[in-house]
Write a structure and sequence with these properties.
By secondary structure, the protein is α+β, with helices and mostly antiparallel strands. The protein has a single domain, classed as HIT-like (HIT family, subunit A), CATH 3.30.428.10. Helix content is 28%, strand content 17%. The chain has 3 helices and 5 strands. The chain has a 5-stranded antiparallel β-sheet, covered by helices on one side.
């Protein structure tokens, strides 16, 4: 792995990739690494990270993101099967305002169980009449 970490060795995920600090690794290939979250929402909560340092998913090119998502699906299936969970969340936070705590792109696989009490949907908003349609058109126009 080429060291492209912009945080000059301070990125905890880059240290995990380099095996400088221990992690409970569940999957690894040349592009990605998956390990159990040290502070899990539920047992089996796993993270999937690119081996290339990228602060957010927008810093990955299309090929790199596709390679990462393939691993997300593999890990999600394995976590669900292994934990016996009825469902799971795939969560990805881009940027501090979105809740990203480690500035290295990553996905969370959170297994879900009946009455586990987890709820990330604490705040909801409503669109004014016609606002959703207009916003959808604008987003569609912005897709390259």
């Amino acid at each position: 792995m080429k060291d492209e970490c912009k945080t000059k060795g301070e990125c905890i995920f880059c240290k995990i990739i380099k095996k400088e600090i221990p992690a409970n690794i569940v999957f690894e290939n040349e592009h990605a690494l998956s390990f159990l979250d040290i502070n899990p929402a539920n047992k089996g909560h796993a993270l999937i990270i690119p081996k290339k340092h990228a602060e957010t998913t927008l810093d990955l090119n299309e090929k790199e993101l596709k390679e990462l998502v393939v691993v997300v699906l593999k890990v999600a299936k394995a976590v669900k099967k292994t934990t016996g969970s009825q469902a799971f969340n795939i969560i990805q936070n881009d940027g501090k305002l979105a809740g990203q705590l480690v500035m290295h792109a990553h996905f969370h696989i959170v297994p879900r169980f009946e009455n586990d009490g987890l709820d990330y949907r604490t705040k909801r908003t409503q669109y004014a009449h016609g606002e959703a349609s207009e916003l959808a058109k604008q987003i569609n126009k912005a897709i390259e």
